[in-house]
Amino acid sequence: GENVEQHPSTLSVQEGDSAVIKCTYSDSASNYFPWYKQELGKRPQLIIDIRSNVGEKKDQRIAVTLNKTAKHFSLHITETQPEDSAVYFCADPDTGRRALTFGSGTRLQVQP
Amino acid sequence: KAGVTQTPRYLIKTRGQQVTLSCSPISGHRSVSWYQQTPGQGLQFLFEYFSETQRNKGNFPGRFSGRQFSNSRSEMNVSTLELGDSALYLCASSVGQGAGEQFFGPGTRLTVL
What does the pLDDT look like over A13-35, one tens digit per residue? Predict the structure, then answer.
């Protein structure tokens, strides 16, 4: 939970393309992995999350995959639209402190 | 259900002053967490309060403190402000303690001159 690495820091795609953001965590006891979206000037909002007992979860155009062996989880956005442009944060529960540790964020820009 | 609210939304202070920020969680949520957001450091965890007790604390100096009231509303205080304290301060509430889904407030943007 104390170390969450997020890549890439910026991502630019053409409208309609897919976008993938990846996070790596260090605490093998972590069991909850949320993704937040923060639009410019707005508050972060949860868009999807996954628990450690499943490998993938989908919600329309967004999906999250979890690889517990490799300790990474990824956000996948398909058929990107300009309104997907935002900063995306992954988070990992610090099981020791029982608090969320956020990744450094990925600024996604979808070019129309 | 009303969302998380924070007051004030904007604040300008000078170095050495102190400031108090307020957060009202979603009704029924008992946990309030505070985060500092800056362009260079992302979202940094400050502390979490649950049932009026500080349960977790991030790596911030003692100038940063907080409290929670019996109605779950929370305040955070920063004393002896420094230029580097300029940031967006976000609070988030959740139903229970710990790392479940958190609902963020709009934030208080603090500028220290």
Answer: 999 999 999 999 887 777 889 99
